[in-house]
Task: inverse folding
């Protein structure tokens, strides 16, 4: 049985993680840490867990009682935590913040070398890893839509990406743009062309692209001769899920059938990412660990649609998937979740 410790367990990701692990056949929760809620039942904060568990939040962090630690901190806190605490060498870490996702920007913390936790391209490295940086939610959705195109060398010019996310992507702490009265029936653009996930998106696309092809970069970190990812993020008026469309200009003479075949082949062995010939909608993935990918090809244009649940495949579902890989068990264990038709 995998013993799990959760740090920062009172937020949205902490609650979703507890929900998954309570039903995981090969894992048990050793402790759920929250300084501000210590001593209180988990179900007092995560009310959807009422009747499912008697677990209480704790202020202690008994690292020696855990095989795996999940960091559910805000961005920037994971680095600080590792510098201030001694974690036994045998304890694996899965960090859900952005601190260690981008190799060129990750802080240097002695004895901690993080692997980027996107199983679709890093499965073998994750299996051998002691420390995994879980990808961002928008990053996961965009990468999974563009990786096959990057591998084919099709990203030869700037790519336009538009994506809409649910309000849970902003975290549990109330903000001006998360109040129901503001969010309901409303949409807005934010972090136009400057979203923090652009760095890891470009890192992953460059990982698979042919070396002779143009480097892929963000408008933030321009590279001479690079193809930029121009990302327009939207706030949606729903709670959970991400829907992304990406437009790639196809080089002259591109065979549409070859593109579709490449997309289907790229994900043929993926446990949770599936290529489909049918148009997508968000309800196909909400409350699951799936990513669905669909491609439409027009003269000179490839339009890729992708959708995920931002709290699951975009966060803790993928984190549990990584834990399974790191622990040498079935990648799908505890994650066979079904979408609702309504």
Result:
């Amino acid at each position: 049985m995998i013993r799990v410790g959760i740090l920062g367990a009172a937020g949205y990701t902490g609650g979703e993680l507890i929900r998954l692990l309570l039903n995981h056949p090969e894992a048990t929760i050793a402790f759920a840490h929250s300084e501000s809620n210590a001593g209180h039942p988990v179900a007092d904060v995560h009310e959807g867990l009422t009747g499912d568990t008697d677990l209480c939040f704790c202020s202690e962090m008994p690292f020696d009682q855990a095989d795996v630690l999940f960091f559910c901190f805000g961005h920037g806190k994971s680095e600080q935590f590792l510098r201030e605490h001694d974690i036994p060498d045998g304890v694996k870490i899965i960090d859900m913040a952005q601190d260690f996702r981008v190799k060129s920007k990750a802080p240097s913390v002695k004895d901690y070398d993080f692997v980027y936790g996107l199983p679709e391209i890093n499965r073998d490295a994750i299996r051998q890893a002691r420390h995994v940086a879980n990808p961002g939610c928008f990053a996961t959705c965009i990468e999974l839509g563009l990786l096959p195109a990057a591998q084919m060398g099709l990203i030869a010019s700037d790519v336009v990406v538009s994506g809409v996310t649910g309000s849970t992507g902003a975290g549990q702490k109330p903000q001006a743009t998360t109040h129901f009265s503001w969010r309901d029936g409303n949409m807005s653009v934010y972090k136009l062309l400057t979203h923090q996930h652009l760095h890891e998106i470009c890192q992953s696309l460059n990982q698979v692209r042919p070396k002779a092809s143009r480097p892929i970069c963000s408008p933030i970190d321009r590279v001479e001769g690079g193809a930029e990812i121009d990302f327009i993020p939207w706030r949606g008026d729903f709670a959970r899920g991400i829907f992304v469309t990406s437009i790639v200009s196809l080089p002259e003479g591109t065979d549409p059938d070859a593109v579709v075949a490449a997309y289907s082949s790229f994900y043929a062995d993926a446990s949770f990412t599936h290529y489909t010939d049918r148009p997508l909608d968000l309800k196909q993935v909400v409350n699951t660990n799936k990513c669905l990918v669909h491609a439409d090809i027009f003269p000179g244009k490839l339009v890729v649609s992708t959708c995920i649940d931002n709290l699951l495949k975009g966060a803790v579902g993928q984190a549990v998937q990584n834990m399974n890989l790191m622990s040498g068990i079935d990648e799908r264990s505890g994650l066979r979740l079904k979408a609702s038709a309504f």
Q: What stands out?
A: Residues 150 and 209 are 5 Å apart (CA to CA).
